[in-house]
Every structure is written in structure tokens, then in C-alpha cells.
Amino acid sequence: MSVENRAPQTVTVTGAAGNIGYALLFRIAAGQMLGEDTPVRLRLLEVPAALKAAEGTAMELADCAFGLLDSVDVTDDPAQAFDGTHHALLVGARPRTAGMERGDLLQANGGIFGPQGRAINEHADDAVRVVVVGNPANTNALIAQQHAPDVPASRFTALTRLDHNRAVALLAAKAGVTVEDVDGVTIWGNHSATQFPDLTHARVRVDSEWKPALEVVDSAWTDDEFIPRVAQRGAEIISVRGASSAASAASATIDHMRDWALGTGAGADGSARRTSAAIVSDGSYGVPEGLISSFPATSDGGEWKIVPDLAPDEAALPGAGERLAATVAELESERDAVKELGLV
Ligand SMILES: NC(=O)c1ccc[n+]([C@@H]2O[C@H](COP(=O)([O-])OP(=O)(O)OC[C@H]3O[C@@H](n4cnc5c(N)ncnc54)[C@H](O)[C@@H]3O)[C@@H](O)[C@H]2O)c1
Ligand SMILES: O=C(O)C[C@H](O)C(=O)O
User: According to its UniProt record, which residues of this chain constitute the active site (predicted)?
Assistant: First the structure.
């Protein structure tokens, strides 16, 4: 079907005037998220103080003369921003500031993600896809989902694709191969320092032959360097760059939404390509049902699906099971905290 004949898809980006928003919007308008045959209608949601900056971004979007860009609307009204939306990218969040307790942070984000969830419930397209990027991403996604009782829970997800991409890049560099020569990495659990980047079912292609990753890199490097480096990469970027990751976070958000909407497809050897996504648990792998946790995942272009039979292999990496349990326990404690605060 030609571009002229396709109905535009509405994409809402919150926090549109922020750093990730600026790195995200131009790529969406260029067709990198929904494909080069799908026109997009952009809705930019911001707080009143940042509306002028968002208007400036909208002016630049117009100046790019993107063939796929149908329209850009800027608003501070969630009802307008989510009206009929097909793709909701929830980036804007309240960052933790000096002296702020964890409860204060959750409360402040509850004030953002509760109303946005409600607005999605009332105004979004029935088949809306939501990804939460703003931290604490998994729990913010849970808050939004709990305020949208008419939207299937599976339509709310959180971003762990950045952690996944970081893990793939670090393993490829250590093994001396390209990222195309790595597959089967999984990020489990929370987008936080407790996450478990798991190599126990990963493979690396060396000299045209696929080998278990843990035969190519040793378990000491995995335990002492790989896992902590991936889990703390966000903090490392903040300390080196002086600001939270922005372009890489935007790129991972595009990867997550594109794979969800268009499918994960086949991997390097023709088998189903899997990635990592924080999606609602159906109880798989001992993760309590309803938590939004990162899993090995595929999409056929409809729903994300949790890939079975990939439990962390304790024999290949002693302590793997405990690592999964620890990150899930953190998600449970965040869920309990927001319940106590009356946010879900
Ligand atoms: N999940 C991930 O992998 C990942 C990676 C990097 C950053 N992040 C998180 O993404 C978030 C955004 O990062 P950033 O660098 O773009 O921050 P930023 O401070 O540059 O931008 C955030 C924007 O959100 C806006 N905002 C705040 N409340 C809003 C609301 N209620 N509605 C609409 N907009 C609102 C702010 O005005 C601001 O323009 C942060 O929470 C950050 O920690 C997540
Ligand atoms: O913003 C942060 O705290 C870090 C971010 O989530 C990241 O992983 O880069």
C-alpha cells in the first residue's frame, strides 16, 4: 500500500521537550519506528512550563519536511494528547532530587502516571500500545495500567530494551565479534541496579559457529564485570556525560515499539529472534502474576509473548536463580509501596 493510502497512526510522546523527547521525535517522524510506509500524527504532551520549548521542537519537525509527518500537536492536556492514540510513549517523569525519599518519588510519579493512565483509558484507541520510559519505569507502568481498567493489562509495558542493547554491545565487544554475532541475551526484572542481565542461554558466533556465550567468555568476567557494568550503566552514563542517557534511551524506545508493532522476526540463523521487554507477568518463571517485569520476549506484531524454557541456568552460572529472585523481590517491594500510598 502506498503512503498516501495508509491511515496515519497517532503517536503520543510525553516529556516531549526533554532530552529523550528531542532524540525520539525526529526518528519517529522519519519512519524509523512504524516503518517507512506509515504516516504519523504526533502529539506532544508537556507541563505548562515546557510548552514553549515543545512548540520549538514542533517548528523544527515542520522544518524537516518529513514525507510521513501528517501533523504535530502540542498540549498540556492529557485528554487531548491521548485522544485516539495508537502508541503512547510515556517519557516525562519526576526525577529524584536531593533529599527526596523513595516514597516522595513514588508519590510524585503517581501524580503523573495515575492521571495519564486514566486519560489513556478514556481516550486512547482500543488497541493502544504503551511503553513507559520515565523512571522508576516498571512501577510507573504498573501505576498507569492500574488506572486503565478497560485497557488489557498487556498493552502496558516498560523499557528494558536499553539494558538489553547495552548487554549485547558489551558481550560483543568482549568476544571480539559484531552485535549481529550475539543472540539470546535476557534482561530479567526491574530497570534498576538489581536487574539480571543473563547470558546463560546466550550464544556468540565465532568463526561462523554459534557457541554458548559462557564458553566464549568466562563466568568470572560475567559475575564480576558484565552483570554489574550493564546494571549500573545508567549511573555510569550520568557520571561521565553529566546527564542521563538520552539518544540511546530514545533508540531503545524505537526498537521496543517497532519490534512490538512490526514483529521481532527471525534471528541471524533463521530461528525466532528474541529480545527483552518489561511486560505483565502471567506467573512465568515464578514472577508473581501482574508485575511488570523484564522477560525474554518475542512479538508477532500483535502482543508481546514471554518465551518459555529459558530459566536462568544455575549450572552455567551459580547464583543465577538468586539474581532473578532479588530483582523480582525489588519489584514486589515497589508494588507494595505504591499500594500503601494508595497509588494502585
Ligand atoms: N527506562 C530507561 O531505559 C530510561 C533510560 C534513560 C532515562 N530514563 C528516564 O526517562 C525520563 C526522562 O528522561 P529525560 O532525560 O528526557 O529527562 P528530561 O528532564 O530532559 O525531560 C523530562 C521532560 O518531562 C517533562 N514532564 C514532567 N512531568 C510531565 C508530565 N506530567 N507530563 C508531561 N511531561 C512531563 C518535563 O517537563 C521534561 O521536559 C527520566 O525519568 C529518566 O530517568 C529511562
Ligand atoms: O535516568 C536514569 O536514572 C538512568 C537511566 O534509567 C538509564 O538506564 O540510562
Answer: 191
